[in-house]
Amino acid sequence: MAWIYDSASQRVLCYDFFVSESVVFQNSIVAEGADVVAQGAKMISQCRVAVIGYGNQGRSHALNLRESGISVAVGGRSGSRALQLARDEGFAAHSSVEVVAEADLVIIALPDEVHTECCPPLLDAMKSAGVIGFLHGFSLHFGQVTVGKGRGVVLVAPKGPGTALRARFLEGMGIPCLLAVHQGGDDPIRTEGLAMGWAHGIGSARAGIIRTTFRDEAETDLFGEQAVLCGGLCELIKAAYETLVEAGYPPLLAYTECCHEVKQIADLICDRGMAGMGEAISNTARFGAEVAGERLIDGSVRARMREVLREIQDGSFAAQMIADSAKGSPRLRAARSATAAHPMEGAGREVRALLPWLK
Question: Which pairs count as long-range contacts for 317-326, CB under 8 Å and 24+ apart, including other chains?
Answer without folding.
Answer: 317/222, 317/226, 318/138, 318/142, 318/144, 321/112, 321/113, 322/113, 322/116, 322/144, 325/113
